Amino acid sequence: MEKVEIAAVDGARVEAYPYGAQVTSWKPASGEERLFLSGRSSFGPRAAIRGGVPIIFPQFGGMGSLPKHGFARVSEWEMVRAGRTRAGQGEAQFRLTANERTRSAWNHTFSASFVVNVRGMSLSLALSVLNEDRVPFQFTAALHTYLLVDDVRSSVVRGLEGRTFRDAAAGGVEKRQEDTELRAIGELDRIYLGVGGGPLEVRDSVRRTRVSMRGFSDVVVWNPGPDRGKALTDLDPGGWLRMLCVEAAAVGTPVQLAPGERWTGQQTLTAL
């Protein structure tokens, strides 16, 4: 597969693939890797890449009639540009438009754009969707971000206290986050509703990452845990210990777009 590498003048860099418009590596100016990528990832047609930042569109999970997580992450996107801005930032833009394959799953005319911008200690990811159809449509979406952690069992997420979440690991029941820190104990699969822009902070014994967002209303936190982790054939043995997904999402209330309307959701990761 074709790989795109972009770098800022300060040394911050990103690797991405037009397949899925998927970011697979982010190294801020300090030089260390911040995203998890499984060594068993399938880099082949119609197979999702396990790690980095898969784009979930136009359906999150199994919440609809489409294949799980929609088609964006297993589609070939057009690379519009890749390089460096006048301000010295590394930037790439990818585009996906309706075609015969997307219409066979989701019969709407649309144009999606994904812009990746890296500089200093931050990575900014922006997904835009334009309704080019004659009728309204709705969708759910997420940036399924796999953060690299030293050991997920000693990792915490801060900023979710008092928030309501759907616990998919417990059958989808709604609960309230009472603790100031969320810890991954066993399987973790939660959709936090109406979180807004955050910011959240993810900490382990080695790294601190701030996660902020705009346009996305929800946050998904996921780790398969030891049992489900073993069942994932494209995940390294013990790989579940090295990753924690903290995802900007629009899931609880689907995005509604009238003809000609555009929606944009942005997630920014900052290495602290």
Give a structural overview.
- The chain is mainly beta and 272 residues long.
- It has a single domain, classed as Beta-galactosidase, Chain A, domain 5 (Distorted Sandwich).
- The protein has two helices and 20 strands.
- The strands form three sheets. It has a nine-stranded antiparallel sheet, with no helix packed on it. Strands 4, 9, 10, 12, 13, 15, 18 and 19 form an eight-stranded antiparallel sheet that branches.
- The mean pLDDT is 96.
What's the CATH architecture? Distorted Sandwich
- How are the strands ordered across the major sheet? 5-6-7-8-20-17-16-11-14
CA-CA gap between termini = 32 Å
Q: What share of the residues does DSSP label as strand, in percent?
A: over 45%
Unreliable stretches: none
* Category from helices, strands and their pairing: mainly beta
User: Helices and strands, in N-to-C order?
Assistant: EEEEEEHEEEEEEEEEEEEHEE
